[in-house]
Design a protein that fits this description.
Elements: H1 2-33, H2 41-57, H3 59-69, H4 71-74, H5 78-104, H6 106-120, H7 133-150, H8 155-163, H9 174-197, H10 208-232, H11 242-248, H12 256-271, H13 283-305, H14 316-340, H15 349-383
Helix pairs in contact: 1-3, 1-5, 2-5, 2-9, 7-15, 9-10, 9-15, 10-11, 10-15, 12-13, 12-14, 12-15, 14-15
Length: 384
């Protein structure tokens, strides 16, 4: 009986190590295709390290130790055990070692990024501000500068403001932005570490529900990390919001709150992409695509979350969001081209208005994503 238990344990551990190796290879392939996913490396490193070595330090390790201690006790399965150790070593080399060296050289990377941005004159944001925290920061700087110029301020106070360059607000350097990004990623890393330490990121052999819960928490962490990278990244493109929207689709059908978060994130995130199609002949195309996608998403999610037609996804908050975005769209596509564009006045206003409105909306979606991640972790730990 003991021999059968050891054999089953070795086979399960070998299967886990094989899937971990596949996961490391797929993430390396994804990272080589798009550098945006580098911001998920800390989360992957934390969860992969705990997942890998928790198997080695718990039941799987005990089974392997019993199997390798006596060849007679296990018999032909000794080769399986040796193969498992080789896969474990290969997994460590592929997944853990490169990421560890990357974190070890993070200071050099930040310095190199600073030199590149200074040499290429790369600014904090694009000419069209991406809808993130820095759009709100720059907009606040413009508002404060305008108020200071228009207000009656004593000369002494004006000299102090000018000497310290307080207005307009100073532009954060790449190292400062990198530190803000690490702080934004910290909640996902902390909860990911504790969750992995309590075996939430390991598929349970006795309960499939535990595995589903672990996967759900990990996807929440991926969504929040992608959101943090978009909201706090340096020189982020507005299309980068798709790195958060795409994995969010895996959560959108689980709860009403997740479905509403997905709809609101799509409302603001995809609306921020409309100015990229700026030609007049593209107006009908982008309007149709945006409305068709939003209506389709709302209809499908309502049918899945409310199968018996007992509720609706859209609340009064969503109706306010639709009204605000409609007003911005009408101003951007009708009022501004007709009233302001012929005289060349306020050319920046449509893009700034779109960026600020979408950044405020995505800021609340970002906070809600973090709250759902923490709530998912707390529920799962209570069940365990």
């Amino acid at each position: 009986m003991k021999r059968g238990t050891d054999k089953a344990g070795v086979q399960i551990a070998s299967s886990n190590q094989t899937w971990e190796l596949y996961g490391a290879a797929l993430y390396a392939l994804l990272l080589s295709m798009k550098h945006l996913y580098m911001t998920l490396a800390p989360l992957y490193l934390v969860c992969a390290t705990w997942h890998h070595y928790s198997d080695m330090l718990s039941g799987s390790f005990c089974t392997i130790f019993r199997a390798t201690r006596s060849y007679e006790a296990v018999g032909p399965d000794f080769e399986t055990t040796v193969s498992l150790w080789k896969r474990s070593e290969c997994y460590t080399v592929i997944a853990i070692d490169p990421l560890s060296r990357g974190i070890y050289d993070c200071t050099l990377t930040v310095k190199l990024a600073g030199r590149i941005t200074r040499a290429c004159k790369i600014s904090l944001v694009h000419d069209y501000w991406a809808a993130n925290v820095w759009a709100v920061y720059l907009f606040s700087s413009r508002i404060v500068s305008f108020l200071v110029r228009q207000s009656v301020t004593p000369n002494e106070i004006r000299k102090i403001i000018e000497s310290y360059s307080l207005v307009p607000f100073p532009e954060p350097s790449p190292p400062i932005v990198a530190m803000c990004l690490l702080i934004g990623l910290a909640p996902a890393l902390i909860y990911g570490w504790t969750a992995a330490g309590s075996n939430l990121t390991r598929m349970s052999n006795s309960s499939s529900q535990a595995g589903v819960n672990a996967a759900t928490f990990f996807i929440h962490a991926v969504v929040f990390s992608s959101f943090s990278a978009f909201m706090l990244g340096y020189h982020v493109h507005e299309k980068a919001i798709m790195t958060a929207i795409i994995p969010m689709t895996l959560l959108s059908t689980r709860t009403v709150e997740s479905a509403r978060l997905f709809i609101r994130t799509c409302m603001f995130g995809l609306f921020g992409l409309l100015p990229l199609l700026y030609r007049t002949e593209e107006l009908l195309v982008k309007s149709f695509l945006y409305l068709a996608w939003m209506l389709f998403a709302i209809y499908v999610l309502e049918s899945l979350v409310f199968p018996k037609d007992k509720g609706t996804l859209l609340t009064y908050i969503d109706l306010v969001i639709i009204t605000v975005l409609s007003c911005v769209f009408i101003f951007m596509e009708i009022i501004h081209p007709v009233v302001f564009m012929p005289s060349g006045k306020l050319e920046f206003l449509p893009l700034m208005k779109t960026s600020v409105v979408c950044s405020v909306g995505l800021l609340f979606c970002w906070f809600q994503s973090g709250a759902q991640m923490i709530r998912c972790y707390q529920v799962k730990t209570k069940r365990d």
